[in-house]
Design goal:
Helix Hairpins; 3 domains; elongated; four-stranded mixed β-sheet; HSP40/DNAj peptide-binding domain; alpha+beta; single chain; 8 helices
Length: about 300
């Protein structure tokens, strides 16, 4: 089984922050949306996500480090020792897992470490039956839905659908745990982990909890001022453009951004872009004959 540390390219002693950083870097590089013509990237993305799921679960990470589960979260088989196809041959204990192997290793201790047994009279005593394996899902969330925290419907492997409530601060890489929605096992069903991927938008851009938008306005609207309709993540609203506005002027729509973890909500920052008409002879004639005195240097702030 693949080593989740090797899959993410981090050392065994890596911190949670180092693991998260490595996952984000690989997820961006390998995401299927960026590798539509490379099926191996999609497979690698799935492996990276599974490795991240295991290493960010403190209990599973500890169990993996102890050799109790493999890189996919399944119970590690105790019959993989010895090599050569011979497995192991208990001796001195009547064939029970309480004796010693050929090399003098106490097999009772091995079973106790693997299964949590309490004593050498049998490895089934004093331990819980293992739950089923974790199932991983990827959920692509529209940009506007993530900002407005709209519930998302997901179909599970058994064909059932559930509605997920997005939490404040949701972003690409956010994970949600669905208890008991994984595979069935002797000790009950495992869990499901849903990893969120916020889809990019064609004109909105996320900036922390804020949303940025470049808004084209006409020359007349910029010079004289106007009320214009502006798209937001929750529908269009009217915005007042002050008279004498220039390209680059930023206007703010309060509370139209993403919901932050601290209970506040970001804003929408609207950058005005004056859109001049192409080949407008009247405008050209007006500027050529304009008697206004505008001797200032609009590039002075750039040091030129």
């Amino acid at each position: 089984m693949a080593d989740p540390y090797a899959t993410l390219g981090v050392p065994r002693g890596a911190s949670e922050a180092e693991i998260k950083k490595a996952y984000r870097t690989l997820a961006k590089e390998l995401h299927p949306d960026r590798n539509t013509d490379n099926p191996k990237a999609s497979e690698r993305f799935s492996q990276v996500t599974s490795a991240y799921d295991l290493l960010t679960d403190k209990d599973k990470r500890a169990r993996f480090d102890r050799g109790e589960i493999d890189g996919e979260g399944n119970p590690a088989s105790p019959f993989g020792f010895g090599g050569g196809g011979g497995g192991f041959r208990p001796q001195g204990g009547g064939g029970q897992p309480g004796g010693f192997g050929d090399d003098g290793v106490d097999l009772g201790d091995i079973f106790e470490g693997l299964f949590g047994g309490r004593g050498r009279g049998g490895f089934g005593r004093g331990r819980q039956a293992p739950k089923g394996a974790t199932v991983n899902y990827r959920l692509a969330v529209p940009f506007e839905d993530a900002a407005a925290l709209k519930p998302q419907r997901i179909t599970l492997q058994d064909g059932k659908t559930i509605d997920l409530k997005l939490g404040a601060g949701v972003e690409t890489g956010t994970q949600m745990k669905l208890a008991g929605k994984g595979q069935e096992g002797p000790g009950g069903a495992g869990d499901a982990i849903v990893t969120v991927e916020v889809r990019p938008h064609r004109f909105f851009v996320r900036d922390g909890d804020n949303v940025r938008l470049d808004l084209p306005v006409s020359l007349k609207e910029a010079v004289l001022g106007a009320k214009v309709k502006v798209p937001t993540v929750e529908g269009a609203v009217m915005l007042g453009v002050p008279a004498g506005s220039t390209s680059g002027k930023v206007l703010r729509l309060k509370g139209r951004g993403f919901h932050g973890k601290g209970g506040t909500r970001g804003d929408q920052l609207v950058t005005l872009i004056v859109d001049l008409p192409a080949e407008d002879t009247e405008l050209k004639a007006f500027v050529e004959g304009w008697s206004g005195d505008d001797s200032r240097n609009p590039r002075a702030g750039l040091g030129v």
